[in-house]
User: Fold these one by one.
Assistant:
Number 1:
Amino acid sequence: MKSKFSITNFLPVILFSFIVIISGLVLYKLRSSSSPPSNITSQLIGKKIPEVPVKLANLNLNINNEEFLNFKNYQNQLFAVNFFASWCAPCRVEAPLIEDLSKIIPVIGIAYKDKDIDTKKFLEEFGNPYKKIGADSSGKIAIEWGVYGVPETFLINEKGDIIYRHAGPLLYNVFKSEILPLIKNKNQ
Amino acid sequence: MKKQFCSILSICFLYITIISNITLAEEKNTQLNFLTNKTREIAQNIKCLVCQNQSIDESNSELAKDLKKLIEEKLNDGLDEDEIYTFLRERYGDYILLKPPLNTNTILLWFLPFIILVFSSIYIFKFFKK
Amino acid sequence: MIPELGHVFLVLAFVASIMQIVFWTYHINSFNELALDILKKSALLNCIFILISFLILTYSFIISDFSLLIVSNNSHTLKPLIYKISGTWGNHEGSLLLWVLILSSFTFLVSYKKTHNNGELLFSIIGVQTLILCLFLAFILLTSNPFERVSAIPIEGRGLNPLLQDPGLAFHPPMLYVGYVGLSVSFSFAVGALITGKINKEWAQQIRPWITIAWSALTMGIALGSWWAYYELGWGGWWFWDPVENASFMPWLIATALLHSIRILETRLIFINWCILLSILGFAFSLLGTFIVRSGLLTSVHSFASDPSRGIFILIILVISVGGPLILYALKSSLFREQKLQFNLLSKESALLINNLFFTTATATVLIGTLYPLFLDAFNGDKISIGPAYYNATFAPIMAPIILLMAIAPFFNWGKGKSKNLLKIIAILITTSLVSVITLYTIDGSSIFAIICGSLSIWLFVGVVSDLIIKFTETKIKLNKVSNLFIYISKNKIGMNIAHLGVAIFLAGVTGEQFFKTEFSGRKNIGDTFSIGNRVLEFKNFETINGPNYQSEMGIFTLHHNSKFIGYLKPEKRYYPTEQTQTTEAAIISNFLGDTYIVLGEGNYETGWSIRIYFNPLVSWIWAGAFLMALGGVTSIIQNKKTFNNATKVSLNEI
């Protein structure tokens, strides 16, 4: 009995080619991307800053007797929010770049799961580039921002929308290729 | 023939007894944890984002602990399972769910296995009709 | 100097394989015995070259020759000897060398096996095997050279990941590779059949032992990996549907379907297309697995360091070695003439057909689950995760009917014949299933899946036992002497029964562990005694210990069950200074009825320690079941050796 299904005999090749082509595309994409593939895109891009109130860190830098971070103070300009911690090694590595960033646009820091004393020591050692510093000792604020590790840096535009998120320490090539262009665009 | 039948049955009942004894003798779910069962059920479906392929129920990382506390709090506030998943999805994306939600992205994922199964069954049916 | 020699031998093997391939393609249409003899001898030569190369690499690891890059990256002088040796394949380059060693060894064994009577087929088999060998040697020499030197020789190596310094994991890769590479033999048989254009029952009889060996090794390899994950990773899980696990599971599913299909082809000339296609797909999935693990496509618990450029190379290998045969299959498979046979719905042939369809659907499901997140990401950038919940909803329901079929298919007859005992057996099965469903329901009515899983296990067990007992009574032997048992085994093929019994036991283990486990977690200090049900645990002491290359913090517990002392549990937290990693070593007391499993967390003498305790009923049945499956495979090879060597045609009655 001759096998009748000559068309279905081609099915395996067709499916196989499909898998190969797409795998090839994925690999090609992997080779040409700069950030590690495991970084997930923030869900908050294009959305407003989370409404959750952020207490200011108690670092004896408080001049105006404020209690909470007020993001509205930075309306009408581009600014950055940087989640960091004294116990976080990559945060130390990115400290100089955050300082560079702070010279271009205002940067607000949020100390993640840290003690005020340790935050203070960290800032004394690496300098304080932040306009204001919030404290998220429980980690709940980070969850609201979709943060899953430190450090993470967000860019917010003048309308109060989050336009960019970088997870991991800020590296020079990311700074140059991703962040600076966004800043330049806004200033045009 | 009767001998066959009896010996088969007796071995089978022995087997059933063994398995039942084991499970009867064990206490079921004496949960002395600080987490309720429902929390753990949900936690088993949430991916630990800082681990290599674990759920936050299995993981001991800080993020996992924080998320578990969060789930517990939300449950106490009266949210149901779906609302908690939605809460996490809004902040972390579908990626954090270990059970992929059913939407336009995943419709193929969920239905393709059963489509294949249906086609196979139709093929078998047609084959024997001849 | 010596490592360079290792490299030279690899180059020699590569050059030799190219010459062999040219020779093979030149003589492919003008076969003669002399050409076959030359090819056989060169297969032996390849094997010798690669063996020398592999031994040189192993030697370099044993003497801790840090001038080699992979030795300095993955080894350390303080490492125990056995892990120095197993470190040879504990890295990407070394494991590939092991891969080609096994491949060339199999080629040699196939070519020198005495019972081949089809020289033309053998000629192409060796040719295809050598082509694959050549592709992999090219890959090794161009991208993954194990003998690469460092310019500045370090005094000490960087050590081996502590998770890998473990006996279970030392044997897991070699066993797994025997499985993967063993499937290349059936692959070559199939491609050989397509090339020569001939296939018959002898083809199936010759291919069968190779598939059985590969399948048994793959079963053991997967089981070892799963068992290792259970006791080493510290949270009591044994299967995570991790892409790397799936990569080993898919070839296993295909190999199982192939194993059963070959049994049919041995006796009647039907399902030829299934046999050929499954043979090609089995090895294709092995290669796909290699691709997934090493290309950087997916990151998981134990994928090797990822490198997309390697990925492209493997993809090319995949296209040549799988795409080629699949095109050949599409073009030539319709030329095979099959027997025109009819069969009932409840016949062995029908069972095989249903079995194959369900198994390929199941394999497709696992493939979809593994690749979907990737493809979606490539398509629109959205990222999703696929965890066990997906597979429980899709894979499990597809396998459930197979379990039902497994118990009754042995009682089907061939073709249009009537089955003798079928009705009686179905009556017994339904009765015992009702009893088991009711029993399980009274134990715990809340989980319907527990009831289903447990009942399936019992259904299958009953089916297997019934078959064994019927065979007993038909052979007319009394089980009063041990020697009678041997007579029974010599007259009855029980490989299948043992393997299916293994599945039943495996399912029982899954039921116990998944649905009936209990867990306690909290903080305890030295001197605390706590009881859970009939078990009493006492936290006796806490010690710090120095191992050969680690420092350990160890908690010491005693376990009493029903007031009887069972044993000590000593969970540890180890710190490996060289690798700067910490591992948790769970303490497990294991017996027939289940495991007691303790994990030690952080803590101190003031606040006590955080601990987690699991009671896992029947969990060792999971690996006992897998072991029985492999044993069934080995049994069937041994029991069939006599029939095969005597070149006796397998008669219809003996199946």
Number 2:
Amino acid sequence: MALASVTFFALALIAIASAVGVLIARSPIYSALSLVLNLLSVAGLYLTMNASFIGVIQILVYAGAIMVLVLFVIMLLNLDALPSPRSIGWGPILGFVLGIGLLAQLLYVMLTSFGISLEAAEPVTTAMAVENGSANTLGQILFTEYALHLQVAAILLLAATVGAVMLAQRRFA
Amino acid sequence: MFADFIPLFVIIAIALGLALTLLAAASWIGPKRPNKIKRTPYESGMDPIGSARERYSVKFYLVAMIFIVFDVEVVFMYPWAVSFHDFIDAGLVATVGVMTVVGLFVGILTLGLVYDIKKGGLEFD
């Protein structure tokens, strides 16, 4: 499947480039738009892995709704473009290298002492991925076995609504 | 199968290509004779006053927040719609069960909307 590989590498390259763009953009709006591109390319990656439902939801919820919220926050706080960066000293670079070293060490300890293997227990076939990634499979299990979890999610969303109303309605004398 | 999604990627590529081609063609073929009036934000319109970066009311944020909540609700309802025929095939008990679960889910979220309307969160003055 050469085409799948080409698509994967193209999307991965866009994802990494746009993620770097989020970090280095001086204007918060450019940063947010780079994040949209990043989320869209990750959605494409989900599609190449046959996770169709999560791919569409990624676009609908993250690139659609969450980004609207992010842009609203930018407008609300009236963020301006950041000033040009000052030159980075040796301290942060040394800290970065030490942090990477510590992370590698932690991962090594975790992988060796807890017996976590990087290899999957059983290889995932395309048919399995297609079956498990479909909205039908999710619906079958979400409204029966995980019905209680769904109601908990509903309560969480209710709390978000009530919290937003509470915060926005507060009068400052 | 990944092959099923190839048309999707093709249409995205066509849309992207068309947009880029049109922009490139406009800047390449189009005449460029700028003058002072043409460079104003609203040509033959009002002169803009002040900065465009104004702070917005928190009311808009509230609307965005409620939009997200109901967006997520629709996301949960999509698998319900897709698998509903299988629940009907599984019999009356399964159908009533799934309707109860979804009804409760929507009911809990509607409480939030009712609270918002009662509090006047959607009123703009």
Number 3:
Amino acid sequence: MRKPDLIVIGGGPAGAYAALQAASCGLSVVMVDEQRLPGGQVWRAPATAGAKARPDDPDKRDGNILRDALNVSAVTVISNAIVWSVEPGFKVSLLGDGPMTFEAPRLLAATGASERVVPFEGWTLPGVLGLAAATAIMKAEANLPGQRIVLAGQGPLLVAVAAKALALGIRPIAIVDANGRGDWARAAFGFSKIPSLAVRGMGWQTRVRLAGVPIYRRHGVVEAEGEDALKRVTIAPLDADGRPAKGRRTTLDADILYVGNGLTPNTEVTRLLGAEHAIDPLLGGVHPCCDGFGRTSLSGLYAAGDGAGIRGALPATLSGRLAAIAIAHDSGALDGSRFERLTRPLVRRAKRAAQFADASCALMAVSAERIDAIAPHTVVCRCEDVTRATIDAAAKGGALEINQLKQETRLGMGPCQGRFCSETAAALLGAHCGGRAKAGILTARPPLRPLPIDTMCGTFTYDDIPVPKPAPL
Amino acid sequence: MGCATTMPTLDIREPNHDSLTILVEGRPLAAVKGQTVASALLSAGVRTLRKSPSRGTARGAFCLMGACQECAILIDGAIVRACQVPVREGLVVALKGVPGSATGMDSGQ
């Protein structure tokens, strides 16, 4: 295949809209995506007959519009692709049906977000899943496993999951919201900046309220119990700082807990390439530093969507399109005046969307006190079973930066590569070294995803292996 | 179905293209076309998929979007993420024998 002008990593709202926009500006685009079909997590395609037959909701409709647009576009879409390495220049190595590499002068990272879960005792038990996992399965399969389901966490996703479950006829036994009515009321002004989404959100709230599912406001999960799988969830009220209040506990019998405390950007591609990053709690933690058009500190490398900082689906479509227009401009396909004309309306919309996103992200904020309340024997790094006590001990021993902590404890070295623990661990380190920012940013290493080594090797005979000429005796 | 050699077989069951059967530890488990292996297992109440390599604690599906790697199990002989693999008729899932998994390696400590 001829070298494309642009490779887009990620087929969610940001990546797919960027790919479409870039193609419409005349660039040849390859979009690689890890899922079966484009749409990302928020517009995940229905996969079962049951999910396909359900009446359209806005997410399903938006996803179908996007997938139809991609189908008739000039964008080359590679689905089911595991991107495992990215090199400057840019060379993207991935595993699809087999090993593949693509090279292009410009690269857009639209890698989306991972869920952040504030660790509690027992969160590694089977039956404890992410809140985003609940949306994924409901969108793809119109199903939500569990007999006695507890939904817990914070932010718009909690209400969205609850409302979606009720619409499927699945009734959670309880909703545990880290935010109180006051927090939601404070978000109202920001939400009002995108009326259509605000109305949708109010619809979710109303549905949940009318269903009469018990809602524990300003509560958090403190423990999950069970021998080999979840049996009980213990919750506690959170004080003004976000710490579980002493003494007051409520125990719920549950077989599945879906829990999530907001999102964190997937930055492994931009970190691996060595772009500059910053830390902003309102953007979900570590994010690549970008100008208003997704340009990172590295020439030719761009970032958009939640992978560049948590903002949500609608802002992601705008940042994806803005980045694509910048890419077209920077590669000489668009002159300055067309760049100006195309970006101006999008920038205006993005400004309004930013206030909405700020309100959403404020509801996903996790306080330093909440992190500090994690019990000593609670596992923080799931892959390597590293506990809070081990992290504190390493910090006292002098590991005051996250990469030192990794060398000391193996935290972040397991198969998930720190996706689910690095923010929590850095916050814990911050208490020892003078703030989260000083704890630094985890260095990314290839392979970015675990790979079956035989697939990478392919088939070969020993004759194919180059043998260097022996040194003269 | 034992007399299929003497009689022409006539399948009178309602054709149902949506349900299929996967094999989990040798036992059949009903699944729905389009489901992932992870959700088929979760829906059937199979929660524990493996044990953590370091302390040997029980683990199951967690993120369902391919990031956490907690559902990496043996499917048709290869270790893959169950949440990324759609079910197929006759697909074979093994929960034992994955290094550091269910009974494959009981905590070496």
